[in-house]
Amino acid sequence: MSDAVYLLAGEEFLADEATDKIRAQVGTDPLSEIHLDGSVAPSEITTALETSSLLGGRRLVVVRRADELRKEHLTALESYLRSPSPDSVLVLIASQRGKLASLVKAAGSVIALEAPRGRRLVGWLRQRATAVHLKLDDRGAWALIDAVGTELRDLDAALEQMSTGLGAGARVSAAEVRRAFPRLSDERIYALTDAVGERKLAPAMATLRRLLDQGD
Question: What is the predicted pLDDT for the residue at 47?
Fold first, then answer.
């Protein structure tokens, strides 16, 4: 039996993926799914939760920007969660746990979704690459981070793009990344020369280390 409520706190892309897993686990009715945000009236959330799906099955109610929920929202949710509807599942998506965590723990699950950084991000990228049938090495991963940035959604889209372009089983090195994203790769080199020219030692050294990791 699934929980009545989930708090997904952290990185938005990871929260979206966690929502997909909850949706699959619970087997909710996609036609009755409701998406709200933290600015709506408390009654709008509780009404959505207490209204049964017309087609049967369980209804998923997703509230984004749950950090914005005010005291009156928390009071209404606390009252609802004392006797939640068996026909609904509430997913709260927030950037951090905050006051919602203690409220949710009593009736559901709090899931922390921290975005990976540094070496952990490289590992995450290599796992995602494997999932889309690419063979990505460390230098290729660093090159992709430099080319696209650290946003997980953008990195995932870049991997999908490379998988489509290169085909299943392709090896992705730093050189392949530069070919796929040439303008963005050049910008990293320009950033190094600019930092050196402006005598900004720390940014220059950080950029140089990253370029060396890529093999540039």
Answer: 96
Range(s) of the domain holding residue 14: 5-113
Q: Which pLDDT score, from 0 to 100, does residue 202 have?
A: 64
Task: Spell out, as residue ranges, where the chain has pLDDT lower than 50.
Answer: 185, 214-216
Same domain? For 26 and 106 the reply is yes
Euclidean distance between CA atoms 112 and 105, whole angstroms: 13
Report how far residue 141's alpha carbon sits from residue 4's, in angstroms, rounded to the nearest whole number.
Answer: 39
How far is it, in rounded angstroms, from Cα 66 to Cα 73? 10
For residue 33, the one-letter residue type is E
* Domain match, 97 and 136 both: no
Q: Is the dihedral of CA 62, 68, 72, 78 positive or negative?
A: positive
Q: Cβ distance 142 to 210 under 8 Å?
A: yes
Contact of 72 with 44, CB cutoff 8 Å: no
